[in-house]
Amino acid sequence: MIFVKSEREIALMREPCAIVRDCLQFVGERIRAGMTTKEVDTLVYDFIKASGAEPSCLGYSGYPASACVSVNETVVHGIPDDRVIEEGDIVSVDLCAYKNGFHGDGARTFRIGKVSPEKDALVRVTEECFFKGIEGLKADSPLYDIGYRVQKHAEENGFSVIRAYTGHGIGREMHEDPAVPNVGKRGTGPRLKAGTVICIEPMIAAGGWRVAIKEDGWGAYMLDGKPSAHYENTLVIREDGVEILTL
Ligand code: MF3
Ligand code: CO
């Protein structure tokens, strides 16, 4: 069931979403070679707590951290640990904050120092895929138009779209209906209603799209070992466009 949020509910969502936005910026200003992924998680935990919010990921289905920190070929759900971030890595940081009874969710992929031209383009195209995804998006748009546009942009740039994970509705729960795939057929899917709040999160790979799960049961890595990137925002569908809450 796809919820439509009232203006009062959307107003309550602004705060957790702004905390996600600010936390991602805070991390982006501090993440560097030599830091462990666990240290990134600590930055996230402390920031969210200091903002008077709760890290939604911590304890979610047993997830043991506040952020997903996914390096290079790990695309999403990387559990922070003692891995040391190195010059030339690309690191995706995905986090959710819970406040006012609602969740906000966002992700960025950071370049660590000088990265290869391939990784540099991958990070750029992944961000572009998000903005392609929202192009023309408004009330009454067919849901799968988003994935159609994301996929088109990724593939035109020689990259592939990870199929195993999707975006999602968000609100009182971190994951609500609908699933928001990053591939799709134009003109299909349910029509979005004004007031629906969704996360659009392209996950794009430099090689093939097939993933496997690490022994920890969470970390998703590219089977061919090629780099992957992730970019996500929470947004509201409006009559005449979208309102992004985490930018
Ligand atoms: N932020 C992720 C998403 O976009 C959720 C991570 S799963 C968790 O859906 F277990 F870490 F919470
Ligand atoms: Co999400």
Structure commentary:
- The protein contains four helices and 15 strands.
- Strand 7 and strand 8 (176-180) form a beta hairpin.
- It has one domain (7-244): Creatinase/methionine aminopeptidase superfamily (Creatine Amidinohydrolase), CATH 3.90.230.10.
- Helix 3 runs antiparallel to helix 4 (144-156).
- The radius of gyration is 17 Å and the shape is globular.
- It is α+β, with helices and mostly antiparallel strands and 247 residues long.
- Bound molecules: 2-amino-4-trifluoromethylsulfanyl-butyric acid and cobalt (II) ion (CO).
- 2-amino-4-trifluoromethylsulfanyl-butyric acid (MF3) binds at residues 57, 60-61, 63, 68, 77, 94, 96, 105, 199, 201, 232.
Rg is: 17 Å
Query: How helix-rich are the residues, as a percent range?
Result: 25-40%
Q: Main beta sheet, described?
A: 5 strands, antiparallel
Shape: globular
Judging by the overall fold, what is the CATH architecture? Alpha-Beta Complex
Bound small molecules, which ones? 2-amino-4-trifluoromethylsulfanyl-butyric acid, cobalt (II) ion
Number of strands: 15
What's the CATH H-level homologous superfamily?
Answer: Creatinase/methionine aminopeptidase superfamily
CATH topology: Creatine Amidinohydrolase
Please write the string of helix (H) and strand (E) elements.
HHEEEEEHHEEEEEEEEEE
Number of helices: 4
Q: Assign the structural class, choosing from mainly alpha, mainly beta, alpha/beta, alpha+beta, or little secondary structure.
A: alpha+beta
First-residue to last-residue Cα separation: 27 Å
CATH level 1 name: Alpha Beta
Tell me the fraction of residues in β-strands, as a range: 25-35%
Adjacency order of strands in the biggest sheet? 8-7-9-14-15
Average the pLDDT over all residues and give the rounded result: 98
In the predicted model, the low-confidence regions spanning at least 5 consecutive residues are: none
The tally of domains stands at 1
